[in-house]
Write a structure and sequence with these properties.
mainly alpha
């Protein structure tokens, strides 16, 4: 059995807690807390335990091969290596128990009560099973909608997905991790994103409906991910992709991973060429491109603001307030089953 966990007094973990509050934000809270704990564990206990927290990956300790027909000296060397292995393994298990306590100690009282009520908790605790502990916390956090009105939980999780955006000074990788968590939360609460109507328009649909739908799902998520990326930095890139598509060239990424790669390459290119994301007068490149190509966009039959198909009387986003929403949100109802 492990000792009674105590809340960490480390300043870096003051706000890193696992809780049940914040409908629609459970994924973000879980990911932030786990990341903070992993960083702390890496500093205190080393890389192996950091990876255990982040990836759920146990390290492998290679056993030295006993030299059956070796000399006495070789066998003595083997004996020392084996002793070191035992000590290393014991140290790892001791530190893992401390990490287990640390994680449990970062659970708020309601969460801790739910975790300890898990059917297999006694075995999890006896083995200081960090991976299963985190899995239990994650499942509880993501499914804390048990006491909430299901349609409300579904709406909140979908709203979080449609409104996600890269925060100021947030690294692309961190935005990507947060996005993946929000997607998982949305699909747990609502269902798998299934753009059936989009899939029906593809040649792949006749071959395999499920494969075609999954492929379109990946495209939809990639688009939402890119739409949420820093518009000041990547606005011109998004404009260019939309413009290319209107001309019959589909260069949009086919998955979130591809989208991340495209944005990363764009950032590297800008740094290499010394290009700024913002013009000297403070206007974003996206706005500059839009103003410059207004007439050209009209000729191509697209709206220069939202890049959607244009026709007389066209309005961007919310018809009542004129608010321009994420283009992906406008077609949300065709993405779900």
């Amino acid at each position: 059995m492990t000792d009674t966990p105590k809340k960490s007094d480390n300043n870096s973990l003051d706000k890193a807690v696992y809780g049940l509050e914040g409908a629609g934000k459970q994924a973000d809270q879980y990911n932030k807390t786990t990341q903070a704990i992993a960083e702390h564990v890496g500093r205190e206990y080393g890389h192996s335990l950091k990876m255990l927290v982040l990836k759920g990956r146990e390290p492998t300790f290679d056993k030295p091969v006993y030299p059956t027909s070796g000399s006495a000296e070789e066998k003595a060397i083997w004996s020392k290596e084996y002793d070191r292995l035992i000590k290393k393994t014991e140290k790892y298990e001791e530190d893992k128990a401390k990490v287990f306590n640390l994680i449990l100690g970062q659970c708020e009282k309601p969460m801790k009560n739910r975790v300890e009520a898990v059917e297999e908790y006694e075995d999890i605790e006896d083995g200081s099973d960090v991976v299963k502990l985190l899995q239990s916390i994650k499942e509880i956090a993501y499914q804390s909608s048990d006491k909430k009105y299901p349609p409300m939980q579904a709406w909140l999780s979908l709203k979080a997905l449609m409104n996600i955006s890269q925060k100021s000074n947030e690294d692309l990788r961190d935005y990507y991790k947060r996005f993946e968590g929000v997607v998982e939360m949305a699909e747990l609460s609502y269902g798998v994103i299934s753009p059936v109507e989009n899939a029906k328009k593809t040649k792949d649909y006749a071959k395999s409906k499920s494969a075609a739908i999954e492929k379109e799902r990946d495209k939809v998520l990639a688009y939402i991910f890119m739409q949420g990326a820093d518009r000041q930095q990547y606005g011109s890139l998004m404009y260019g992709l939309g413009k290319d598509h209107s001309l019959g060239n589909d260069n949009y990424p086919a998955s979130v991973e591809e989208a991340l790669e495209v944005l990363t390459m764009n950032t590297k290119k800008m740094k290499k060429t010394g290009t700024n994301a913002t013009k000297a007068n403070g206007d974003s490149l996206e706005l500059a491109f839009a103003q410059m190509d207004k007439k050209e966009a009209r000729k191509k039959g697209i709206c220069y603001k939202c890049l959607e198909k244009w026709s007389p009387g066209h309005k961007c986003g919310d018809k009542k307030g004129g608010k321009q929403e994420n283009g992906a949100a406008q077609h949300m109802m065709t993405w779900m089953e």
